Amino acid sequence: MHILFITDNFPPEVNAPATRTYEHAKIWAEEGHQVTVITCNPNFPQGEIYDGYENKLCQKEEIDGINVIRVWSYITSNEGFIKRTLDYFSFAVTSFWAGLFQKTDILIATSPQFFTTWSGWGLSKFKRKPWVFELRDLWPESIKTVGALDDGLIYDTLEQIELFLYRSADLVVPVTDAFKKNLVDRNIESDKQLVIPNGSNLDLFNKENSDGQRIRKQLSLEYKFIVGYLGTHGMAHSLDFILECVADIEDPDIHFLFIGDGAEKERLVAMAKQRNLENVTFVDPIPKQEVPDYLDAVDVSLVPLKKSDTFKTVIPSKIFEAASMQLPILLGVEGQAQEIVEAYEAGICFEPENKDDFLAKLRLLKEDKELYEKVSKNGEKLAQAYDREKLARKMLDALEKLTL
Q1: What's the CA dihedral at 383, 386, 387, 388 to 10 degrees?
Q2: pTM for this entry
């Protein structure tokens, strides 16, 4: 089977969409299928081309049996609605153009970003092949939630296009049950949806093969109780709230480690400096293969989002990485993510943007050794239940049925 996958993000980028696509595509290629990924040149989240790449019209490479085609796009940092829209729309155009010249039996287009799915729809009509809408984010609803778009004509138009694409797809693959319910409530048939959640890479995230002590020594944090956040520093992640909480922590043993980049990074660094937060360290983005070492170095994995009904439908991939490393999760997300963490007792949850609750739950994790050990061990059960290899094969089965 020839699978054509269109995604805005792909390794060496290390965000959740890039990782999920790569790990699924790698497994499908190992099963003997020909997988071609059309993506842009790596630039997320700084909006700067990675070393070794150029923003050319089209260039090809092979990564672990996956044929990768990188196309030109308008590249900008994750700032400003208009510039971001130009970025995403330009990729939709160039990925469609590149896809015209690729043989395929089935197409997959993943969101975010939303315009990527326009390309998938267009190619499916031109080639008369089935296409799959992989739904990773409820867009445009999510950008309205973070204040980047208001109600009005633009929002209503984009929502109508969103619903049209769901209806036109041969299969919609939401990453959460809540996403599926949202679509069903908006008259998208349940039968054409298959939930494939994010999951755990049990080979990469292996505590026995990680060297957290090296990272602690490198950062001069050998004797600290480290609360680690690894990921995008974006508008949705409520990291400014976390820094406000940090200012009220008097325990000198607690240290916060923020790893990554994003639209809010510069402001967060300035905020920490202005408040003289000596118990905070910022680290630039790290390669994916180093993430297990950094997770092994921290004592608690912090997973926050803004308080919003929209984010009750989200399951951050960070919880699966932490669980694989048997690392307690301190979760500031309501809804689906909270249900999973509490069901497996793999961490404790605080109410998003509630300072008193956050500080109390952090103190509980640090001081209650029995609780800490319990939730650490339970992470392995959560990780096994969401083994990404099994999930990738489940999705592959669905793709094969569509091509019969």
Answers
A1: -120
A2: 0.85
